[in-house]
Specification:
The protein is of the alpha/beta class. The protein has a single domain (about 1-145), classed as Tetrahydropterin Synthase, Chain A, CATH 3.30.479. It has three helices and six strands; from the N terminus they run ββαβαβαββ. It has helices at about 50-60, 85-90, 100-120, and strands at about 1-15, 30-40, 65-70, 95, 130-140, 140-145.
Length: about 150
């Protein structure tokens, strides 16, 4: 079995709608450290599981973005400033179906890499699979997502 790890830094912001007092209820950002593990029992015709650069490109799609739950009050259809035309594309806002916690973002990144592997657009080893995504929100706090 072969296993690769791709490590990348991402800068992004988020806001959480929590039922308790927390500084995370304010708009804030992080320099996230992401580690993606992928394994396969054999290599592709290029002699690898997948080119690291393809995985990094998927992760970089989430760099300098702002994550917010689509039900957050800032997303209000009538009054929310984030709903103004053009804000999503212009400002890199990514509305999500759930709270943009580290746990949810780790799963989001996992699924994005899984789509890359199953998509057939880049050379990937047969039976390659994403094993896990580790996401550090701070130097002392991380989450690991495994299906």
């Amino acid at each position: 079995m072969y296993e690769i790890e791709v490590i990348e830094e991402l800068d992004s912001g988020h806001i959480l709608d929590l039922p308790y007092d927390s500084k995370c209820k304010n708009i804030h950002g992080h320099r996230w450290l992401v580690k993606v593990k992928i394994n396969a029992p054999e290599l592709n015709n290029c002699g690898m599981i997948i080119d690291f650069t393809h995985v990094k490109a998927v992760l970089k799609e989430y760099d300098h973005k702002f994550f917010i739950c689509s039900s957050h009050e800032l997303m209000d259809l009538e009054d929310g400033w984030l709903r103004m035309p053009g804000h999503f594309d212009t400002f890199g806002i990514i509305p999500l179906p759930a709270q943009p916690t580290a746990e949810f973002l780790a799963e989001l990144l996992f699924e994005a890499v899984a789509v890359l592997i199953s998509g057939g657009e880049v050379p990937v080893a047969d039976r390659a699979r994403v094993v896990s995504v580790e996401l550090w929100e701070t130097e002392s706090g991380r989450v690991i997502y495994k299906p």
